[in-house]
Amino acid sequence: METTNNVKTPFQIPRIGDKAPNFEAESTFGPLQLEDFRGSWLVFFSHPADFTPVCTTEFIEFAKNYEKLRKLNCELLGLSIDSIFSHISWVRNIEEKFGIKIPFPIIVDLDASVANLYGMIMPGDSTTETSRCVFVIDPDGKIRAMIYYPLTTGRNIDEIIRLIQALQTTDKHTVATPANWKPGDKVIVPPPRSQESAQERMNQGYECIDWYFCKKSLEKD
Amino acid sequence: MACIDKDGNITRSAELMMLAALEPNDAETIIKECGLAPFRVRSGLRELEKVGLIQMKDNLYQITPLGIEKLEGKQVL
User: Which terminus of chain B is more solvent-facing, meaning fewer CB atoms within 10 Å of its CB: N or C?
Assistant: First the structure.
């Protein structure tokens, strides 16, 4: 394994469907383990650094949407390679300058151990900062989605919420969701796995363009 | 440590957890009684156990004599 500064490459990045690696780390809410979030959905995200403008806009948007996320049984957990004092100072600054209280914890990862565990550092982008990574972890501790943005581009918080709503809809109704889906839209009926079920589904009241492409409304369930 | 500062003072969230553990209770009951997010209670109980203010037996958490002393010192009890 090569080591450049505090970045270890190549590393095994957790993948969709993997169990999210557990860790224990200091945070703005005290010491936390990933296991503490078991039973809730979790948006675990990294940001490049405290006291930077794009990150500040993201934190403000996450904070504004916190109650909406809580209603989805979803918690937020931030991370950057900054000290506890930097985190506390930044959070206080956001409250003072923008009037927004940050209601979720931020991991202190000065040795980048958690960042490396999750592959949050992109050496081609920066070897000292975490990129804008998002891991959506389900209540059983499984990674369900991953999003990566570069340092320069702030994330779309509405899209992250939509992603969680889509995953929860998939889990609840055993369906898939089409492009640009939003709650209330029709969902995709998973494609059949046999000729017999392909034939049968044409008569099951779905809105079918062809045997492999059927939609339905969830209101009918 | 989120539950206790360097001077040994307990925080409000720690107080709530300790009060919910006056009788032996499991984590889920303490979560309900405290009204805090589950992750905060789980991490808080672990910290309180580490410093001897709460003990766990048979998956039930209960405040220790030292914990009661702390609450009495804050005139919470």
Answer: C
pLDDT in tens, A174-219: 999 999 999 999 999 998 899 998 888 888 889 999 989 999 999 7
Specify the pLDDT at position A7. 60
**Domain B12-73 listed as CATH 3.40.50.2300:** no
**Are B3 and A30 in contact (CB < 8 Å)?**
yes
Q: How many domains would you assign to chain A?
A: 2
User: Any catalytic annotation for residue A55?
Assistant: yes
Is A75 in CB contact (< 8 Å) with chain B? yes
Q: Is the ipTM of this complex over 0.90?
A: no
Is residue A38 a part of any domain in this protein? yes
- The answer to whether A72 contacts chain B (CB < 8 Å) is no
Residue B26 has pLDDT above 90, yes or no: yes
| CB-based contact A33 B37, cutoff 8 Å | no
Quote the CA–CA distance of A118 and A107 in Å, as a whole number.
13
Do A8 and A111 fall within a single domain? Answer: yes
Q: Do A40 and B43 touch (CB under 8 A)?
A: no
Pair of tokens at residue A60: 């403000």
